[in-house]
Amino acid sequence: MEALHARRHGIVGRLAINAPFGFGRRYVVSVVAAFRQRYPDVDIRMTLSVNLWSPAAIGAIWLFILANCTRRV
Asked: How far is it, in rounded angstroms, from Cα 53 to Cα 22?
C-alpha cells in the first residue's frame, strides 16, 4: 500500500528532450541520468541531434532554450 501511495504522489509522465549533440553529451545526459534515478516512473525520451528542429514538429508543449547571451561591444 505504501508503494501505491508513493507512486500516486510522485512525478510520473513523459518527458521528451531534444538537444544539440555536443551540449547534450556534455551536460544533459548526466542530468537526465540523475533525474531518472530519482523519478523512475517518468518515461524519458531524449534525442541528440546536429540538425535544427521545430518544436511544433515534435509536439512540444514547453520549450526551454539555454543560450550564452554575452554581448560584445
From this structure: 15
The CATH number of domain 1-73, selected from 3.40.190.10, 3.40.710.10, 2.30.110.10, 3.30.565.10: 3.40.190.10
**Region class of 37: left (phi > 0), else alpha (psi between -120 and 50), else beta:** alpha
Whether the pTM exceeds 0.70: the reply is: no
In this predicted model, what pLDDT tens digit does every residue of 29-42 receive, in sequence order? 999 999 999 999 99
In terms of C-beta density within 10 A (0-12 exposed, 13-18 middle, 19 or more buried), how is residue 2 classed? exposed
Strands 42-49 and 13-20: parallel
